[in-house]
Amino acid sequence: MKENILDNAYEKYKTLEDLPVKAKVLLPHEGMVRKGIIQFHHGMSEHSGRYGEVMEFFRDHGYICAIHDVRGHGQSMKDDSELGYFGENGADTIIEDAHAVTAYLKNNYPDLPFILVGHSFGSLAARAYIKKYDYELDRAFIVGCPGDNSFKAFGMLLIELMTIFKNSKEVSPFMAKVFNNQFTKPYRKLCKKYDRKELPYGQICTVEEVVNSYNSDRKSGFLYTLNGYYTIMEMMSKVYNGSVDKWIRKNTNLKITFLSGADDVYMISEKKFMQAVERMKKIGYKNVDYKLYPEMYHEIFNEKDKLTVYNDMLEMIEK
């Protein structure tokens, strides 16, 4: 994707229908002072509909909240055949789609503090967004941060070889197994530690109802295409690899907070988590901090004590 594709973003994106992806916006109740804008970015194999509760919380505290379905997810596709397919130049497209939503929001609700919240794969997307567009933001939250995976370079090469013989739109159970197997053993250890039964995708949350809802949702937990798995690893490379000079760093005073469940298997380890935090500092961001929540898994927005997370974020934004 060309670097200048969104040079005219603020002229182009005036209505939700102008956007390249499906998005929704929640406005504070009539008469409330509008304190700011929060743009959410969802994670892998899920959709915007799973963020209603956290968005309503911030809406009720005076914040305009927005979220879009990433391509190949939710409503941002023609039909289920596009599940898990990001399109060509997937990683770059994800960043530009997010910036298009930003442009729409700033066009329609100008002069308000702007906050970006990225969860899981969305936390990778949020950092890749910061890499190019940090000047658009006043605050950022990196939530459920996946640890850097040493497999990514080999995985990208493997998929490039596979696409010689297969279509990149083809769903890949093999890559899904390779991708997910690394989290099976840590999850089983957690089940044993807390005497919990094992559930498919049980590693996402300690709340069984949340896991069951995820598993019964045909637009959650689906397998990605070869293109999808490649895009994830490409996005991870954008965030964790390469020279710091490739980061725009126009807003190095940007406040960035990492939030994660202490028992999040996607974090890989607390050491990996801290490496992610320290990398943002090494890149040049001066105001980076973090918080780990004991006995919470990956989806801290859906955990039993989620209101603690919401209120912590609200306090951080408003202090």
Task: Tell me what the structure shows.
- By secondary structure, the chain is α/β, with parallel strands linked by helices.
- The chain contains ten helices and seven strands.
- Helices cover 40% and strands 13% of the residues.
- A seven-stranded mixed beta sheet has the order 1-3-2-4-5-6-7, sandwiched between helices.
- Helix 3 (90-108) packs across helix 4 (121-133), helix 4 crosses helix 8 and helix 5 runs antiparallel to helix 8.
- The relative contact order is 0.14.
Describe the SSE topology.
Layout: H1 9-12, E1 23-26, E2 36-41, H2 52-59, E3 63-68, H3 90-108, E4 114-119, H4 121-133, E5 139-143, H5 152-162, H6 173-194, H7 208-216, H8 226-240, E6 255-261, H9 270-283, E7 287-293, H10 306-318
Number of strands: 7
H/E element sequence: HEEHEHEHEHHHHEHEH
Q: Could you say how many structural domains there are in total?
A: 1
Main beta sheet = 7 strands, mixed
Fraction in beta strands: 5-15%
Taking pLDDT < 50 over at least 5 consecutive residues as the criterion, the unreliable ranges are 1-6
Helical run tally: 10
Query: Radius of gyration, rounded?
Result: 19 Å
Give me a quick take on this structure.
This protein is α/β, with parallel strands linked by helices and 319 residues long.
Brief descriptors of the model:
319 residues, Rossmann fold, seven-stranded mixed beta sheet, 10 helices, 7 strands, disordered N terminus
